[in-house]
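Q: I'm a student working through a structural biology exercise. My instructor gave each of us a protein and asked us to get a predicted structure, then write a short paragraph describing it. Mine is Phospholipid-transporting ATPase. I'm not confident about reading structure output yet, so if you can add a plain explanation after the tokens, that would really help. Here is the sequence I was given:
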Amino acid sequence: SFSSFLSSFSEQVRYLQANSRELNSTFGYPNNTIKTSRYSVFNFLPLNLFEQFQRLANAYFLILLFLQLIPQISPLAWYTTVIPLMVVLSITAVKDAIDDGSFSYRIKEDKWMNIQVGDIIKLKNNQPVTADVLLLSSSEPYGLTYIETAELDGETNLKVKQSISVTSNLEDNLGLLSSFDGKVRCESPNNKLDKFTGILTFKGKNYTLDHDKLLLRGCIIRNTDWCYGLLVSLFHLGPDTKLMQNCGKSTFKRTHMDHLLNVLVLWIFLFLGGMCFILAIGHGIWENKKGYYFQDFLPWEEFVSSSVVSAILTFWSYFIILNTMVPISLYVSVEIIRLGNSFYINWDRKMYYAPKNTPAQARTTTLNEELGQVKYVFSDKTGTLTQNIMIFNKCSINGIIYGMRNHISKKAITEETEKVDFSYNKLADPKFSFYDNTLVEAMKKGDHWVHLFFLSLSLCHTVMSEEKVEGKLVYQAQSPDEGALVTAARNFGFVFRSRTSETIMVVEMGETKVYQLLAILDFSAVRKRMSVIVRTPEDRVMLFCKGADTILCQLLHPSCRSLRDVTMEHLDDFAFEGLRTLMVAYREVDNAFYQAWSKKHSEACLSLENREDKISDVYREMEKDLMLLGATAIEDKLQDGVPETITTLNKAKIKIWVLTGDKQETAVNIAYACNIFEEEMDGIFIVEGKNDETVRQELRKKMKPESLLESDPVNTYLNTKPQMPFRIPEEVPNGNYGLIINGYSLAYALEGNLELELLRTVCMCKGVICCRMTPLQKAQVVELMKRYKEVVTLAIGDGANDVSMIKAAHIGIGITGQEGMQAMLNSDYAISQFCYLQRLLLVHGRWSYNRMCKFLSYFFYKNFAFTLMHFWYAFFSGFSAQTVYDTWFITFYNLVYTSLPVLSLSLFDQDVNETWSLRFPELYDPGQHNLYFNKKEFVKCLVRGIYSSFVLFFIPMRTIHNSVHSDGKEISDYQSFSLLVQTALLCVVTVQIALDTTYWTLISHIFTWGSLGFYFCILFLLYSDGLCLMFPNVFQFLGVARNTLNLPQMWLIIILSVVLCILPVIGYRFLKPLFWPNSWSCLPLPRWIKTLSSIHTRPRRSSYAFSHKQGFGALITSGKTMKDKTSIIFHLNYCIKSPNSRSSFSPI
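A: Happy to help. First, here is the predicted structure for Phospholipid-transporting ATPase. I'll explain a few features afterward.
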């Protein structure tokens, strides 16, 4: 009953009425607006400030600002912190707004956004579906609508939807459609793409609704002139659509370097606090022993009652003075560097795709250095690795290979390569290309086997033909494979022209023939083959069959043994080239045998018990003793450079996983073609268990059997460290393996403790293929890797079904392909071709990582050396919180004197050029292990900073102690000492950055040496008589530069300080390669020549792949696809012609 049906829903039931916006609006359902950005106009300011103050440095300077408002402890004015902090926050906020696109986002068409629940909309051919829609009627017979779901599941083969009979009669009658007032009740929104349950109430009757009557957002209307639909279903509008529910949430991505900086800043805080504590204690001791007795000369403030109070206040004073330990310019510089490196990506002409006029695009500027640390790449298949184009490449007929000859390789084919001339065939497809004239010659000579081969291809299929213009055939294929095969037969002279439910018309070498269609033995994933039984014009009953070689070899007549062996060798060659293969065979059937078989066929399809098994048995009786004709080889055309790109990434120790919604056979075939799987692998394991225990055993029983034992070290580790989060250690397999797992088994593997077994197994594989996956499962696999492995993940895809994993990965890359713009709009980077990925990672990513690491190492070093001088000076100034430098030098040190050299290093430096970066992918390895800047490197910077500050303070201090001018005047005054120390410091950090620079440009020279020269110019200006006399309270170092720098001993002190600071660095860099060499420091020369001894026999594997779906055979023989709706009873046809169909369409 209706009430019991509603009670079966697990969640709240939803209601709507067609063409009634007032009623539907009372339920508060969402509109069709989809928002992929994090920010809005209203939440931008608070949300962005909240995210920025999650950086400890920003929070630190906010606290510092409040401290500077207290005059009793602040030696500096409050605006010295407010202005830089506001500049930092403003620049970062503007950059985040640009990255997010929150103020420029628009829906493609406003009418999409304005539609509401209960509206009836019209969709046209090749138009994307804009919301989840209940199909009402269409231009095709019986309310059929063909759709492509590549954006949802990655499959390019057509699927069929059918409206219910009560609404299909509405057709395109606007009067009937506008008066339609059906009511829908259904379950609430969920992310299950293959499930929908509801009830339509119309004219007092209830009609059951299921998934086959629903058009999901993201699919595209194909081969259907028009269709009408009701915005209904799960009220899947905007964020409630199944597509968006599978897309995941937008999160703010931060790099591993950002997280590391937060930790290091915390360390610096602790170190800063420790120094302030030591200096405060020193101040307390000094005041207690000396300062107390000198109050006549150094009186205490009124609010200072004892040395303890004075020490407490001094603690906070030093906390303010030593704030440059965490320079506020750090994050501004980081953002500028990231922005600059993002421009390099946008400007790279070698990542510009001219056919579509699309350059590479860095849609975020916060993840550039992360591109240099990627360890795992999760890739979609359809539209990402492939072009969604099937090409008839080769064939084997009666033991002879036709196609591209040995002297014509794939790479050698260009636009100038001579093609086969099909001008003799007026019905040939002008877009079809073939490069072997011998096949045409055999066809013209009337070769019996060649004719029979192409006759089989022109008859054994479910393709629909449309001829709106005389001689202009348009094929509507349910799968791209079938379209390629029928098109090939068409060009070689066997033209499939039209069909009815009972006949097939073929033009054979210009002669029209009509074959009577007796039965279609439909394709299924278990059978892996399809057959047709026809009666020829000569009254012969013929069966034509095509399918997987592994299946058809068992069905061949014994007389075909020698031909079979030759054909299998050809199939091996096809498989090695990555081509998709099908074996073709035929059988001539005795008329009496067919009549008897037809009777059994009818009885089996009418059986109420074990119907499927009985039909399979009947099929097997017919499909035996087949005569082999040959095999087809179709190229699932890859994007340019995909195999080479994956090989290069593998050399960089980047592992490629393919996560696709497509069939297993198709995905595996592409994996071999792309070099993800190799023929020389020790094994390819398939996980297809139907329960937890089976999946567990399949995951490890062959690759590493000892992992099933409790004594396994990793099991012991996991048992002793149950706290979360923890990281799974690296394991080494006992061979070179690949793994294939389907979505059904993956659902079990992602649950409970099985997810650890899954992760341990897949991480030991060189290549992993996950097929038949939902978009949500793609994201779950990425999240699993992030949760238990300390690695950087990258997801790349081109369709809406890839959005969830693009959002889940550390880095998301969208390909601007054929499947819409959803992936690109949700990505961090957008490229047009998969092959650009190697340049994005190995060139831009590696450069960005190296530059960022050099920048951070140098930045921390120069600020440690700068700040720690105050610490040493405190011991000689009574711990009075007096600065060792001139105030103007403190102001300009990070802002002017050292900013340009470090930006030059961070924007222009290259350890090797782009050619060598691509030629030696092994150079990418340090970034994956974060070797150039980590906690250890930070400690090195700190130690080096302490040493440099020690040298820079005590060498000048001891050398000028009690020194005098030639006229007998002392030169060891505070101002001369300050000038000497700051000049020596600037010279040291300038020489240091010159040593760090490996790629010098004119700009590098100007910025590096120009900044040092600019310092001396500013020095004489700030210490000039004019400024000091005009503003004596601001410029207090009157004539110090002129009187100090003209002394030779001062320059000798500076040179001595520079030498003592730099010499250990040079020595360490010289000795490190000798005593601590790295694996990438001495790369071997590539081997260009392979010896014959390296060649070995390839293992046999089937390259069968056929992206077909069961049910089209029944659809054709039922007559529902025919435009002419004559009054014949289709139910009997449905049972007799193709009883194996599982179609859910109710016959009318």
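A: Here are two points you could use in your paragraph. The two ends are 24 Å apart (CA to CA). The first helix runs from residue 2 to 7. It's a good idea to check both against the output above yourself.
Q: Great, thank you!
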